[in-house]
Amino acid sequence: MKHLKNTWKLFVIDWKRIFKNPIAIFLVVALMIVPSLYAWFNIKALWDPYANTSQLPIAVYSEDKTQKFEDKSINIGDEVLKNLKKNHQLGWRFVDSKAQLDKGVKSGKYYAGIYLPKDFSKDLLSFTTGDIKKPQIVYSINEKINAIAPKITEKGATSLQSQISEEFIQTASSTLLKVFNNIGYDLDKNMVSIQKVKSAILTTNDNLGTIDNYTKQVVELHGKVPELKEKLAKANEFTKYLPDVDALGTKIVALNGKMPEINEQLGVILTLQEKIPEIQNAGQQLAMIDEDFASVEQTMTEGIQEAKEGLTIIQQVQQSLPDIQRLGDEANDLGTTTLQGAKKLQEALPSVTNSVKITLQSIQTFATDTSSIISTIQQAIDDNQLSDQEKQDIRDLINQSIAKIEQQRQAIKGLVDYLQQVQESTGSTELDAAIKNLQSADNLLGDLSQRMEHLNTLVQNGNVSAVDEYLGEISTVATNISNLVGQINVESITETLNQVITKLMTTITDAQGLLNKAQQIDFESLLNATNKTVSNAITILEKYQAEMPAIKQEVHDANTMLNGNMDKIVSAINEGASLYQNEFPLVKNKLGIAANFFQNDYAGIRNDLTNTLTTLNEKMPDVEAALNQANDLIQNDWPNIKKGIQKAATAIKKGEKEVDLGELVKLLKLDATKESEFLTQPVEVQENMIYPIANNGSASTPFYTALCLWVGAVLFSSVATTEVYLRDKDKKRYSKREQFFARMLTFIVMGLGQALIVTLGNYFALGVDVRAPFYSVLFALLIAITFMIMVYVLVALFGNIGKGIAIIILVLSISGGGGNYPIQVSGKFFQAINPYLPFTHAVNLLRESAGGIYWPNAWFAIVILVAVAVVFLVIGALLFPHFEERTKKIAELSRQSHLFH
Questions:
Q1: Which CATH code for domain 55-159?
Q2: Which residues form the ABC-2 type transporter transmembrane domain (predicted)?
Q3: Please, which pLDDT band fits residue 175 given cuts at 50, 70 and 90?
Q4: Which of 37, 334, 602, 882 is 20 to 30 A from 263 in CA distance terms?
C-alpha cells in the first residue's frame, strides 16, 4: 500500500509542476493535439480519392477508318469517342493527332493516352471474313508522374476495352443471329433444290479418282510450257539479230578480201617483240624520275621560300642601316662612357671596401650590445618580479635596440643593392654568395627585431619565467648574427669586384675594336648588290615552279601508264607474236569458209527460219493461257474443292443420320434480338456488402488513428524525460520502481488524451463513418495505453537507443501492419512479422468498430494488446532499477558529443 501511495504522490507532483508552468501546459496540450493532426490530414486527403478522377487528363485519338458491312457504314472509333464525351469518370482530352497524343504523354501533360488505329473497325469486323484479326487499343502511360494515377487510368482503358467488347458482342451476335434467321426461312423455301445439290455432291465424291488422273496429265503438260517458251524465245531473240548477222556477213566478205594487207601489217609485232628489253629499261628510268620528283619540287619550294626570307631580311637591314650605323656610334660612345665609369669604380674600391668593413663591424658590435641588453634584463628579473620603473627602463632599452636594428638593416640593404647593380652592369654572378650571406643577416636582424618586441610584451605583462626563458632564444639569434657576419670576407668581396670590373673594361675595349672594323665596311653597296642577285634568282625559280605541277603530272601519268601496265604490255606483245605465228593462219582459213557461206547459202536459210517462227509466235499465247488456267485451277483450287466435296459428302451422310433438317430450320428461325441480349450479358452479378463503409477516408481511419497514437507516444518520449526530478532529501524516500510507475502514469495520461482527441475529432470534426463510435473510443484508449507503455519502457531502459527502437517498430509497423494494403500483397518478410506486431492488432481492433464488430476477432486483438502491455510493464518494473545507472552513463556519453541531449 505504501508503494501505491508513493507512486500516486509522485504522479500528482508531476501534474502540479505541469500546471504551475505555462510553457509546460502549452507543450502538453500541443503534444496531445499534434499527433491527431497527422491522422486528420491523411484521413481527409484520402476521403474520396476517386471522386476527382475526372480531373486526371487522358488523351484520346481515333484514326479509325469507316468500313462497309451489309450496306452499312461502321466506324467503331467514332462511336467510342461519342460515348467517352458522355463519360465523366476520367478527364478525357480529345486530341487532333497521334503525334500530339504521344508528345503530351511523354511530357507529362497527360497521365496516359488511348489510340485507336486506322484499321480498328476493319479488324473488329474481320470475323465476318474468316480471316480473324483482333483489333488493338494502343494504351500509353507515363508511370513516373504518380504512383496511383497509372492504376486509375489503366482501369479506364480496361473499362473502355470492356465497353467496346460488349458493344461488339451485341452487334455481332445480333447480326449473326439475324443471318441465321434469314437462312432458316430460305432453307424452308428451297428444300427441293437442297436435295438436288446433295445428290450432285455425293455423285462427284464417288468419281474423284478419275478426275485426279486427268489433272495430273494437265499439270505435266503445263510443266513443259517454260521449256517450249524458252526455246521459242531463243529463236525469236535470234531473229532480232538477223540484220546484224546480215551486216556481219557483209563485213566478213569484205574482211576476207583485205587479208593480204592485214597479214603484212601484223608482221610488225615480231619487230616490236625484239624491242622489249629497251621498253623495260625506259620504264625503270621513268619510275626513278617520278619517285624523286616530289623531292625536287620540295627543294625548289624551300629554296624560293628561303630566298624570299633572305630578301626580306636584306630589305629590312637596308631600311634599318641608318639606325644601325647611328646605334654603332652610340654604342661606341656608351662603351667609352662605361669604360670611364668602370675605371672610376675601380679607383673607388678601397673606399667601398672600408665602408663594407665598417658596416659589418657595426653589426657585430650591435650583437655584443644585444648581449649587454640581455644581461641588464636578466639582472632586473633575478628577484622574480619587475617594478613599474624597471618595466619602463626595459621598454626604453628595447625600443632603442629595435631602432638600431632598423639602421643596421638599412645599411645591409644598401650594400646588397650596390652589389646587385654591379652584377647587373657586368652580367656576372660571382657576388651571389656574398649577397646571399648579407640577405641572411638581414633576415636574422628582422627576426631579432620581432623577438625584441615580443620580449617587451612579456616584460610589460610581468611574466618573469617567460622572459627568462625567452632571453635565451634572443641570445642565440644575436650569436647567429655575429657568427654569420664574421663569415663574410670583405677582402674576398673586394677582390671579386676588382676582377669583375677588369673583365668589364676588357670586354668594352674589345667591343669598341670590333665596332670600328665594322664601320669601315660599305654595307649599303653590299646590300644593294645582294638584293638584286636574290630577286633575279627568285624570279627564275618561280617561273620554273609554276610549270612543275604539269611536268610532275605528265611524268607520273607516263610512269603509271608504262610501268603499271609493263607486264601486260610485254605479255600482249608476246601473245600477239604467238597469235600471228600460230593462230592467224587458222583464222585466215576459217574466215574464207565463212565468207563463202554468206555469199552462197545464207539467204535461203534466213527465209525458212523467219516464216516458221512467225507461225509459232501467233499460236503460243493461246496455248499458254489455256494451260495456265487449267493448272491454276488444279494447283490452287482443286485441293480445296476436292476437300470441300469430301467434307460436304461426309457431312451430308453424317447429317442424314444425326440431324433433322426440319428441326434445324426451326432453330434458325428463333428471335435474334433476345438471343443477342443473352450472349452479351449471360450472367448478372448481385453485390452483397457485409460491413459497408461510406468512403475511403473512413476505411483508412483505423490505420492512421493507430499510427497517430504510436507517433504521439514516440513524440512525447522524445520531448519528455523518464527520470523523476527529486531533491536530495527526497531521493531516499521514493524507490526506483515508485518513480518508474509514477512517470509511466504521466505518460499514460498523455496517451489517453491523444486517443480521446483523435477519436472524437474523427467522429465529430471529420464526420468519419463509424458503426460503433463508443467502442471506437474505448479501443483507442486501450491502444494508447499499450503503445505508451511500450515506448515508455523502451526509453526508460535504453534512453536514446530505446527511442531508436520505437522508431524502428514504427517503420516496420507501417510496412508490415497491413494498414493500407492487404498483407498478402507485401513481401515474405512483412508477412512473417505481421502477426507479431502490436500495430497489426491495433489496426484490426479499430476496424471492428469502424465497419461493425465481429467479437471473436475483436476479443483476440484485445487479448494480444493487453498481453503486450503487461509483458512490457513487468519487464520494465524488473529491469529499471538495474538499468537506470547504465542508461544515465549512455546518455552522458551521447551528451559529450554536444549533439544529443
A1: 3.40.190
A2: 26-183, 617-878
A3: very low
A4: 602
